[in-house]
Amino acid sequence: MQEFTFIVDASSEGQRIDLFLTEHMEGQSRSYLQKLLKDGAVYVGEKIAKSNYKVRTNDQICLELPDPVKLEVEARAMDLDILYEDEDVILINKPKGMVVHPAAGHTDDTLVNGLMHHCQGNLSGINGVLRPGIVHRIDKDTTGVIVVCKNDNAHNSLAEQLKVHSITRRYRALVHGNIKATEGTVDAPIGRNEKDRLKQAINEKNGKPAVTHYKVLENFKNYTYIECQLETGRTHQIRVHMSSLGHPLVGDELYGPAKCPFPLEGQTLHAMVLGFDHPTTGEYVEFTAPLPEYFEKLLEKLRKMS
User: Fold this and answer.
1) Which of 146, 278, 300, 301 lies at a 20 to 30 A Cα distance from 223?
2) pTM (whole model) above 0.90
3) Pair (291, 220) in one structural domain
4) How many domains does the chain have?
């Protein structure tokens, strides 16, 4: 454990303590510092600080920063489809069926396992538990571009961009039915489905804000090919939002029909474009992952059937 002590000067008078710590603890996210406040790891003088405390001039703020809990991840040689790589970030075109981060049932065949080998362990690890490089995720059966951070500076930069919704994330999807409007927006909060823990749902009471913009690219007899752009990044966001419109993704066993008319492994959803301000240069960069072969073949089949 490390201890950090700060003396509040007049310029910070009245500032919330979580904001004060965020400004003075480089490399730590505000959400993690808020967690430490709730855990009683922050003191004002001799007293444990409350999360809503506003600092005063000459306050002595003490923070007890726990040592990171290492996540035991085995490095494994894997054939990664690398779209771009530099000293700060690596962009991967994730295939269908690959889990991003180790979890129950998937401990040694994930993207992180492959990255640990490729990057020789040089990945970011912030917020107390080392989750190597991962700043955002895509579902196991969703394909496409994902960015991974090689250092904490890059991680913090991209995490902040995600927080303020400045990252470009455009997906391609195939949904059931014909969408009549050429484009639209779903603005509906998403939270845990109270009846099924495996699902997310539109949850007006306990959900977090979620916004998805969509536009029609191509109509088929009973299906629609669309592009979705995310403002937020909630779990299963596109899948939940499109299902709420009565247009679930083709192949989505969780939110769509029980039987799929095509031999698919999971939902037809592809993260095609990812754009952000580079954490070192500040320049806006954008990366594209081509549609996977199975998706292209399915579109061709539908064109012939229409």
Assistant:
1) 146
2) no
3) yes
4) 3
